[in-house]
């Protein structure tokens, strides 16, 4: 690639994404990581994916986890998304969490949950791509999603007409 990675990242930023937090049980308790790489893969079987930066401070714990959840966030969860996006802020602190029957932490403020077992992990350059088999899912709210676009959190709004 002839352009530097900052220019590449800026170009990618022109694609709006939803914001999600991946949660798992780690050695020190429940942990979370903000991601915008979440996508569906397959309906039959139900598969989703997300990617993890190899230099993440949560890399070891998430690589060791056999199960995880993707929690999609609504617009009111911006502060949570910002906190869990920073290095050194893996803990869920005072965040309302319920543990699933499989021991996976699920965020109380999420607008949808996808509880998964790790189906595959693939090398993807400086990231590892996780493919998860969805074991359970739900949506608890019809709130507008939190959006990330051009380096900023944003709200979703309807187009008129």
Please tag this protein with its features.
161 residues, mainly beta, Pnp Oxidase, Chain A
Give the topology:
Elements: H1 5-12, E1 17-18, E2 20-26, E3 29-35, E4 39-42, E5 47-53, H2 59-64, E6 67-73, H3 78-84, E7 97-99, E8 105-107, E9 110-124, E10 127-139, E11 146-149, E12 152-155
Describe the structure.
- The chain has 161 residues and is mainly beta.
- It has one domain: Pnp Oxidase, Chain A, CATH 2.30.110.10.
- 13% of the residues lie in helices and 47% in strands.
- It has 3 helices and 12 strands; from the N terminus they run H-E-E-E-E-E-H-E-H-E-E-E-E-E-E.
- Strands 3-2-6-9-10-5-4 form a 7-stranded antiparallel sheet. The protein has a 3-stranded antiparallel sheet with strand order 1-11-12, with no helix packed on it. A two-stranded antiparallel ribbon has the order 7-8.
- The longest helix is centred in the first third of the chain and has 8 residues.
- The model has no long low-confidence stretch (mean pLDDT 91).
Describe this structure in a few short sentences.
The protein is mainly beta and 161 residues long. Helix content is 13%, strand content 47%. It has a 7-stranded antiparallel sheet.
């Amino acid at each position: 690639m002839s352009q530097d990675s900052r220019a590449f990242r800026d170009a990618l930023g022109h694609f709006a994404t939803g914001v999600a937090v991946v949660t798992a049980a780690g050695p020190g308790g429940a942990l979370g990581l903000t991601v915008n790489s979440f996508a569906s893969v397959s309906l039959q079987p139900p598969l989703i994916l997300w990617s993890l930066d190899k230099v993440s401070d949560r890399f070891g714990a998430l690589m060791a986890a056999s199960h995880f959840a993707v929690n999609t966030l609504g617009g009111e969860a911006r502060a949570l998304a910002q906190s869990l996006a920073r290095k050194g802020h893996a803990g869920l602190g005072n965040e309302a969490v319920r543990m699933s029957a499989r021991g996976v932490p699920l965020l109380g403020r999420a607008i949808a949950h996808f509880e998964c077992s790790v189906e595959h992990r693939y090398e993807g350059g400086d990231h590892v791509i996780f493919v998860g088999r969805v074991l359970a899912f739900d949506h608890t709210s019809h709130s507008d999603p939190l959006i990330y676009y051009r380096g900023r959190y944003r709200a979703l709004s309807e187009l008129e007409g």
